[in-house]
Design goal:
Length: 163
């Protein structure tokens, strides 16, 4: 019975979290990135940039139209409040195929971010967004394994708390 329930999970939700290194997009050097890709081809990455900002990047699959201009995707973790802004109510950054939000900042080995804490302890995250052709879409990712991956990215000496 339990196996049947596990197999019934939405195909968008099943995915693995991995940790890799890549070039920092804003400066020279490398950053560690926790990422996952769902079966529909969407990607979610969380990393700490060289300015100590904790960033979340949501990327559309290859071949899908771009995000509608002037709109940010909304994300919702479990039954939490839907969010489409960075900390301090700043809008997202986007290039059309990806959208990025700042979840918090590392200050004195601490990150105050209820969103990051929810990602680490949640079950699923759902993204809802509008495409440039006017269509609305949604996709979800499993958060299973996100805590392990994010601790590996930020280091065990970093504490994380809600705002």
């Amino acid at each position: 019975m339990l196996l049947a329930v596990l197999l019934a999970v939405s195909p968008d939700a099943r995915c693995e979290w991995t940790v890799t290194s890549r070039n920092d997009l804003t400066r020279s050097g490398e950053v560690r990135v926790a990422s996952t890709r769902n079966d529909a081809g969407y990607t979610l990455e969380i990393y700490r940039d060289s300015d100590n900002a904790v960033r979340s990047r949501f990327t559309l699959p290859d071949g899908l139209l771009a995000f509608a201009g002037g709109t940010c995707p909304t994300y919702q973790i479990d039954r939490g409040t839907p969010i489409n802004r960075s900390v301090n109510a700043a809008p997202c950054l986007t290039n059309g195929s990806w959208s990025e939000l700042v979840l918090g900042y590392v200050t004195d080995n601490h990150i105050a971010s209820s969103s990051l804490l929810a990602v680490m302890n949640g079950i699923n995250i759902v993204f809802r967004f509008k495409l440039e052709n006017g269509d609305y879409r949604s996709t979800q990712f499993s958060l299973q394994g996100s805590k392990r991956a994010l601790i590996e990215v930020f280091g065990e000496n970093i504490s994380i708390s809600s705002n």
